[in-house]
Amino acid sequence: MGVPLVIFSVFLGIIAATIALPNERHKLSEKCTFNEDCATGLFCSSCSVEFKGSRCVRSLTTNPFKLLNTSLPFNKYAYLTTHNSFAIKRRPIPDPTPVVTFTNQEDTISQQLSNGVRALMLDTYDFKGDVWLCHSFGGKCHDFTAFEPAINALKEVENFLSSNPSEIVTLILEDYVEVPNGLTNVFIASGLIKYWFPISNMPKDGKDWPLVKDMIAKNYRLIVFGSQKHKEESEGIAYQWNYMVENQYGKDGMVEGKCPKRKDSSELNDRSKSLVLINHFRTIPIQKVTCKVNSEDLINMLSTCHVVAGNRWANFVAVDYYKRSDGGGSFQAVDMLNGKLLCGCDDVHACALGYSCTIRSK
Ligand SMILES: *[C@@H]1O[C@H](CO)[C@@H](O)[C@H](O)[C@H]1NC(C)=O
What is the whole-number distance in angstroms between the Cα of residue 68 and the centre of ligand 1? Predict the structure, then answer.
């Protein structure tokens, strides 16, 4: 990591210097008591499996569209992805039935998006005559596994896209909706249809995606992938596995030095799919240990999967409790991916300084 890490530290130093508050706020990895103790882009968090007490750790992505430019194809950038983005502790809607299922995240979809998350994994089900987000089993949603009607989450995405006209959001749906046009109707009702990226513009033959700046200009700023093949034809919802390869999720995917593919995906090195998604989260999410999962382990897995994917770096990196880390976490991982993808360096900040570290591997 050498040089880019130094550059990165200098960069953080510059951030800290420009803030220049009367009581200088704490930098990355410094001890803290409250979130307000930490500089912008950091929050105060514990990671008892790595260190005692609380330290300032990252809570914000680096936006490559802003730091650099939007002149490259969509598949030349990396995007922080939250797994089960909707499964948060504080249930978004009041409901007398307690949720008896796992949670995977801590803050709302709006907060995730404003912290730089750019892809959301959502599980959609038919429930109560509507489409709901559930964390369920056997393809059926129950009162105790239901989180909220999908429209609530989609409205948060709509709100983000309308207030941020240069951003692109990807939704990756594990879709159990059987009602014809059930999903389409909720996309229409949420106001998201106007941002819909048409499948006719998605490359199926391993070619590059359109340039980000063109997607922004056309307002094609919502990409939706689903898990039901027939809906590509019937509803125009892209079948994820036509465009993307993905590694195994959960425990079976987290074996050091290995990067097996997920059952539904073609081989990771299948270059006819231009996008690469890497999952890195436990089968059973445990917030306390996630800080380790999201730190060095994650960077190592991304390097392992890079090789298995035929020297391709991930475009999407999917995690639980995305802000939990021992320092840079998933944010540093995405900075690395963007560095590799955009200029061959270990950190996207090096690209901004005009460095070109190796020949681009993708
Ligand atoms: C945009 O950024 C990339 C990565 O740093 C660089 O290779 C490219 O030349 C830049 N394009 C423009 C038009 O500035």
Answer: 7
Cβ distance 259 to 301 under 8 Å? yes
Which residue's C-alpha comes closest to atom 11 of ligand 1? 71
Write out pLDDT tens, residues 328-345. 999 999 999 999 999 999
For residue 71 and ligand 1, the question of a CB distance below 6 A is answered with yes
Averaged pLDDT for residues 308-333:
97
Could you tell me if the CB of 69 is within 6 A of ligand 1? yes
DSSP for 242-283, written as a single string: GTEEEBPPSGGG--TT--PBPTTS--TT-TTS-EEEEE---S
Residue type, position 119, single letter: A
**pTM of the full predicted structure?**
0.91
Residue to mutate (ligand 1; options 62, 69, 214, 340; most atoms within 8 A of CB): 69
Burial-class residue 69 by CB neighbours within 10 Å (0-12, 13-18, 19+): exposed
Structure tokens given for 46: 């514990």
- Closest by CA to 58, choosing from 26, 14, 17, 105, is 26
Host H or E run for residue 329: helix 329-343
CA–centroid distance, 291 to ligand 1, in Å, is 33
CATH of 61-352, one of 3.20.20.190, 3.40.50.1000, 1.20.140.10, 3.30.499.10: 3.20.20.190
Residue 192 to residue 222: CA distance in whole angstroms: 8
| CA nearest to 325, candidates 280, 288, 271 | 288
